[in-house]
Amino acid sequence: MGKRIGKQSIKLDSKPKIISAYSVVGPKEGEGPLSEYFDLILKDDLNGQKSYEKAESSILYKAITECIKKAKIQETDINYLLAGDLLNQISSSNFAARDLDIPFIGLYGACSTMTESLSLGAMIMEAGFANYLLAATSSHFSSAERQFRYPLEYGSQRHPTAHWTVTGAGAMILGKTGNYPYISYVTTGKVKDYGITDVNNMGASMAPAAIDTIKQHFQDTGRGPDDYDLIATGDLGKYGKDITSKLLKEYGYDIEEKYIDCGDEIYGSSQETNAGGSGCGCSAVVDCGYIYKNMLSGKLKRVLILSTGALLSTTSSLQGETIPGIAHAVAIEYGG
Amino acid sequence: MGKRIGKQSIKLDSKPKIISAYSVVGPKEGEGPLSEYFDLILKDDLNGQKSYEKAESSILYKAITECIKKAKIQETDINYLLAGDLLNQISSSNFAARDLDIPFIGLYGACSTMTESLSLGAMIMEAGFANYLLAATSSHFSSAERQFRYPLEYGSQRHPTAHWTVTGAGAMILGKTGNYPYISYVTTGKVKDYGITDVNNMGASMAPAAIDTIKQHFQDTGRGPDDYDLIATGDLGKYGKDITSKLLKEYGYDIEEKYIDCGDEIYGSSQETNAGGSGCGCSAVVDCGYIYKNMLSGKLKRVLILSTGALLSTTSSLQGETIPGIAHAVAIEYGG
């Protein structure tokens, strides 16, 4: 039976195991410094589809089905698929789910979806309602650009603090047994809004949520930066990462030596991605690729991952609204 | 500890109680046949806001905060808010959550959101991770019209099988104890797509999902139409309801005498809403108003509610995609 810990956290006594993880990335991400950790690097970011939206859905489907194969189970063994994405009405996830014979729970948490789906998945496992379940998400540079910003054909100049949406999809399967990295704690975030209105500075808009959830996780669990080998936020990018690190120090938590941001890691400095990567796929592929594989190999024993979401829409921004953010934290442990 | 029942269902041994429910509707819904069951009928569908999107978010916030008051608990007693809506990036829910001091889990299930949020809420309660949690959703005629169809100012002619999006929001609080209607079973739906492309016939696009989930619920639980006083689908409208009733008969389940559709009930025949109501708010306000109050008064003892979602986006339809549907079933019982 599950336990609440502090104000926003839970402890998973059943230790849901991440029995399989799979990551698919686009060509640009495949040229970045983490390329060796991804399971599949696409040669063509359309993935043989007729539109970028269909391409995004197809790479999510690919990540899900390959993750199932890797776990050596059948699609029908999976009791729930928890997935979401950035597209209006999460169409990538809906259309991927249409081709799968799995009960589907659609989520929207913007770029926080990977840890949102893992958090809910861990709770469902703890309740005993699933033997296996799948948590997944995706994003695509070109479908995001034209939905949130400008048609690609305009060739708009990019702001120095702007992010580059990751083309990629990640999937993880949770199971009950076996010797795998497992989820020990979940801290569910609140929506935080510090009044940022600049849609070209997502890092600043999401940083308050990341800071709040990390701080709350430490307070609830009694843990601190020393208890983790790695703390990885989702897609704050270099500017948001800097804010997070500095402000947490003011709160008495020096995470600097343990801290990476997936958006800051995924591209090399010569790839001209300004603040770094973003999108639901950003933390998904870094978590499913780099982090999961480094846990399996024993290099990382205790990790805190936080996908981070900017909860704006084009309509809310056009109507003068500020940009709220959210971050959900999942602690994963293995060995040690 | 929770039990899986059959292929897609679960039994809630902890019987999560619906300790409070609240419904807000717009003026048009307040003139309909169910008006006496709604907690608040707005005089102005802008609710004092500057845009229809802000209005929708404000009525969701109203439903949530009034539901908390009705339960005689504090906002900070609520461990999770599970909410979603139809707007791009679920902006109504995100902005309502911003003003609440509650950990937030964003969902997208189109008009299936009320039973999606209740389903997940019930699982989290069963896991022991919440003392109280809140499931909520909203829709607004005018924000939906301009996002999914045409600017209102065009005065477009409406198709005979078109729906009228309900302006309304519903919220339910789940708790552990007390003498209240409780959730006994949940059946989580799969995405079903029978090739409908007509965006003016949502009932037909969602009916296969409703049929599949009802049939699966009966198979999994061993129950049948006679075990329920009422079976209520979300927003299939009169045409989708007809398809559902007829096809279930072919599968050997005659639900006709127990069966209502919330979209078919919410407006009177003189209100010119064609197929009937739709939108996340449709099943939400009928479930939180009409059904919950009739359970409390003892008129209904065992009810199966299924909110139903059409998982299209304007982009997917413009790209020639068909319209997938989904339906999640929640069995609620009280007394008797």
Written account of the structure:
The structure is a homodimer of 336-residue chains. Chain A has ten helices and 15 strands. Chain A has a seven-stranded mixed sheet, with helices on both faces. A six-stranded mixed sheet of chain A has the order 4-3-9-7-5-6, sandwiched between helices. In chain A, strands 8-13 form a two-stranded parallel ribbon. Chain A is of the alpha/beta class. The model of chain A has no long low-confidence stretch (mean pLDDT 96). Chain A has helices spanning 27-30, 52-70, 91-98, 113-127, 141-148, 202-221, 237-250, 262-265, 280-296, 314-318, and strands at residues 3-5, 9-11, 17-25, 40-41, 80-85, 104-106, 132-139, 163-165, 168-175, 182-187, 230-233, 259-261, 276-278, 302-310, 325-333.
Record the SSE blueprint.
The structure is a homodimer of 336-residue chains.
Chain A: E1 3-5, E2 9-11, E3 17-25, H1 27-30, E4 40-41, H2 52-70, E5 80-85, H3 91-98, E6 104-106, H4 113-127, E7 132-139, H5 141-148, E8 163-165, E9 168-175, E10 182-187, H6 202-221, E11 230-233, H7 237-250, E12 259-261, H8 262-265, E13 276-278, H9 280-296, E14 302-310, H10 314-318, E15 325-333
Parallel strand pairs in A: 3-4, 5-6, 5-7, 8-13, 11-12, 11-14
Antiparallel strand pairs in A: 1-2, 2-10, 3-9, 7-9, 10-15, 14-15
Report the β-strand fraction of chain A as a percent range: 15-25%
User: Biggest interface: chains and residue counts?
Assistant: A-B, 62 and 62 residues
Helix- and strand-based class of chain A?
alpha/beta
Give the beta-strand count of chain A. Answer: 15
Intertermini distance of chain A: 25 Å
Oligomer: homodimer
State Rg of chain A: 18 Å
